[in-house]
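Anyone opening a protein record will find just a pair of labelled lines. With that in mind, the following record should read easily:
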Amino acid sequence: MAIKNLIIVLTALIVASCSNGVSKTESDALKNEAKPEKKAVFTPMNAIVYTTAENTALRLTNQGELTFAKAKQPFETEITIFVNPNKSFQTFLGIGGAITDASAEVFSQLREDKKEELLNAYYSEEGINYNIIRTSIHSSDFGSKSYTYIKEGDSELKTFSIEPDRKLRIPMIKRAIQLIKNDLVFYASPWSPPAFMKTNKNMLQGGKLLPEYYQNWANYYIKFIKAYEAEGISVWGVTIQNEPMATQRWESCIYTAEEERDFLKNYLGPTFEKQGLGDKNIVVWDHNRDLISQRANTIFEDPEAAKYAWGIGFHWYETWTGGEPKYDNLGSVNESFPTKNLLFTEGCQEKFDVSHYQRWSNAERYGNSMINDFNHGTVGWTDWNILLDHAGGPNHVQNFCFAPIHADTRTNELIYTPSYYYIGHFSKFIKPKAKRISTTTSRSTIESTSFQNKNGKMVTVIMNKTEEPIDYKLIVGGYEIAYTIPPHAIQSIIY
């Protein structure tokens, strides 16, 4: 009996020694870590190909089905896209565009049939299925005038009212939401605080938020969110400041990285918490890719600031200095701060020219940006104005630009640009909560990204910016299809 008891004691000591004080939860986590990664089983099936191509009638056109066959070892002379279903990355938030005062003003001038057409083109399953809406907190440059929601000098915000938005902007947003339904992601960005709160006493031409108004300005966001939600518009979040390093001739306001960090840490974040809005998402930076790393380092390495930040937003205009898009900076931020999200918050083709509605390079700029932004960890992608008029506005400082769809308000005509279709190759087929899937190419002449929707369907987007058609193989797991993409074209393959 004594020997039996000794065995029991020794067994207990061995178990205790092996556990080494690890809790059950921690032990289970370690066991889960030790398990081999469960491999996705890709079963060969048919694939449907959609194509948009220059100098053709192809516009998101269904070109029929292809059948996967057993893959063979590709040669270096073959152009190949490799998709590994076993390696997944960020979760997809969605794609959309901004409903600005300009968009709402143009929309209001259309006949009802064209209003319906525009909304369905963007927000329905028959269209390109947008689910993200961005708007401005009071005015931006895209609108016929500059304004705020309070009387000038009202630091206590007693006169706060979103009445300017109720006439045109909010009705358009509500109609879009009716089509988007449960997948809506609605967020807002300020271009400038009211003039009296700034160092230059002007909403335009940069300037900074005066420290004595930090709390008042934080309260302004709260007022905006609560007012919009009282209208039945669920607010997903806000960005702190549109383009905080750009002194523009339109509404603008400058924050250094340290100033934005401290405003978030000491005012905006705590105010959201105190007002019961801690579930709203706060996005920092909201400017170009060039300086994004410094902004991320400054804010996300401060634990007290970082805890309030959902992620970091960015634009694509860094090329104004003459360089190429800085996609590698996105990858660096994604690797450095894997718990924070990357969100593309604005991009458009600048310098409107009525003769260039169908300029194909505009669309290819979209395709290149979307593929590379997603491949570097971006979770969502937001275009700028969804609708502008035949002059590229209205814009109260004549900063006229392109939109994917323009309206000639003189003739009640909607003008679809190639950019609309290029965006649609992503937004129409990739659904919220999809996972990005490992995708690489064997040649620099072709670009690609892939996502897997919750229903298991895979979407691979392929773009050819060259002057020649490209024969390629798409290898997924151990299976392949062979196809051709025309010159200056984009394809979505659904399988």
In short: Residues 275 and 400 are 38 Å apart (CA to CA). The chain has two domains: 46-90+437-494, 94-431.
